[in-house]
Write a structure and sequence with these properties.
single chain; Rossmann fold; 9-stranded mixed sheet; 9 strands
C-alpha cells in the first residue's frame, strides 16, 4: 500500500514538473499583422499563390535590367539575410528576394507541409506570378538546395546558378553535430505537437552563432527578428517539416545534368556545411567555378558582403559568353581569398 502511494505521489510530482516545463517553454503565435508592421519593407509585395499561399517578396532594382536575380535564403532565415547584397546590387540588377513558406512574412495554410520540393514549387509559382522568363537563381544553405533542385526541374528558366554554402550532400554524424538545428532530425511523431508550440528561439540563435565565424554578428536586433518571425503562425511546424521531410540528395549523376554557368561560394570556416561539399558541387557541375572565402563562416554574403558581391558581379558580367546553350567547360576554377 505504501509503495502504491509512493508511485502515485511520484507520478503526480512528475506530471506537475512536466506541466510547469511545458507552460514555461510554450509560446503563442504572433499575428502576421503585427509582424508585417515590424518587418515589412518599402519594397515588400505579397503574392496570392496556388495552394492558399501568400508569398512575401522584395522586388527592387530596374525592371529593364539585363539580368534578374532571384535570391532564396536558408533555414530559419528571411529576406533580411540579403540586405547587404541588396544594397550593393540593386542599381545594376533586378532583385527578387523571396521569403520561403514557413519563414519571414510568407503565409501558408495550416494544411501546408514544407519540404525542399514544395519550396521548389513555391519559387516557380513566384516566378510565374512575377512573369520572370529567365533569371539567375541564388540560394544560400537550404536555399542553395532549393536552387540546385529547381535548376534540375526547370532548366529552361535558369540563366545561371549561384550556390552559397549550399546544402544537399550527405553529412556525417560529426558534421551534423556542428549545427544545433540538426537535433530536430531526432524528433519523434509524438513529440511534434509539443515542439510546434514551444519557443525555438534559443536553438535558432545558437544555429546562427554557429553559422557566423564571429558570433558577435548575431546582434540583439537580429535575435529579436529571428525569435519573433519564428513565432509566426505555422513557422515552427514548417521548421520541423524542412528537417524531417525527404529530399533529393546531391550526387554527381544528378548534378552533371546542370549545364548553366554556376558559381559556388563557400566560407572556409563554415561549421554548418563543410568546404568539401562546395568542392563536390564544383566537381559535379560541368560549368562551375568555386570561390572560397578565408575567415568566413556559413554566410559569406553577410560576413564578407563587399567581396562576395563584387565576385558575384564579375560572374554575372561573364554570362553573355557563358550562356546555357554553350558547351560546358570541363575545368573548375578555385580562387582563394
Amino acid at each position: 500500500m505504501a509503495f502504491r502511494q509512493f508511485l502515485l505521489g511520484f507520478l503526480a510530482f512528475t506530471i506537475v514538473i512536466a506541466a510547469a516545463v511545458w507552460f514555461t517553454l510554450k509560446r503563442d503565435d504572433i499575428p502576421y499583422s503585427r509582424l508585417e508592421t515590424a518587418y515589412g519593407q518599402e519594397n515588400s509585395i505579397f503574392l496570392d499563390l496556388p495552394g492558399g499561399l501568400l508569398g512575401h517578396v522584395i522586388d527592387v532594382g530596374p525592371r529593364d535590367a539585363e539580368h534578374t536575380l532571384v535570391l532564396v535564403h536558408g533555414l530559419g532565415d528571411s529576406v533580411s539575410t540579403w540586405s547587404d547584397w541588396i544594397h550593393a546590387l540593386q542599381s545594376d540588377y533586378r532583385l527578387v528576394v523571396i521569403d520561403l513558406p514557413g519563414h519571414g512574412l510568407t503565409r501558408a495554410p495550416y494544411t501546408y507541409r514544407a519540404s525542399v520540393d514544395a519550396a521548389v514549387a513555391f519559387v516557380d509559382d513566384v516566378a510565374d506570378a512575377m512573369e520572370l522568363k529567365d533569371f539567375t537563381l541564388v540560394g544560400a544553405s537550404l536555399g542553395g538546395m532549393v536552387a540546385w533542385t529547381y535548376t534540375l526541374d526547370h532548366p529552361g528558366r535558369v540563366e545561371a546558378l549561384v550556390l552559397v554554402d549550399a546544402k544537399g550532400w550527405e553529412l556525417t554524424d560529426e558534421e551534423l553535430g556542428s549545427d544545433p538545428l540538426s537535433d530536430a532530425k531526432n524528433t519523434q511523431d509524438w513529440m511534434r505537437p509539443f515542439l510546434e508550440r514551444m519557443d525555438m528561439t534559443d536553438m535558432l540563435i545558437n544555429h546562427f552563432k554557429a553559422a557566423f565565424e564571429d558570433p558577435g554578428l548575431v546582434t540583439d536586433p537580429m535575435k529579436r527578428r529571428i525569435s519573433e518571425l519564428s513565432l509566426a503562425p505555422g513557422h515552427r511546424r514548417a521548421l520541423l517539416d524542412y528537417q524531417l521531410s525527404p529530399h533529393r540528395s546531391a550526387s554527381a549523376r544528378r548534378l552533371e545534368t546542370i549545364t548553366v554557368p554556376t558559381l559556388v561560394m563557400q566560407g572556409e570556416k563554415d561549421r554548418i556545411v563543410p568546404e568539401r561539399c562546395a568542392r563536390l558541387f564544383t566537381a559535379a557541375i560541368p560549368n562551375a567555378q568555386l570561390i572560397i572565402y578565408e575567415g568566413a563562416g556559413h554566410l559569406p554574403h553577410r560576413e564578407v558582403p563587399n567581396r562576395s558581391a563584387t565576385d558575384l558581379k564579375a560572374f554575372i558580367a561573364s554570362l553573355p559568353a557563358q550562356r546555357a546553350d554553350a558547351q560546358p567547360e570541363a575545368a573548375s576554377i578555385v580562387v582563394k581569398r
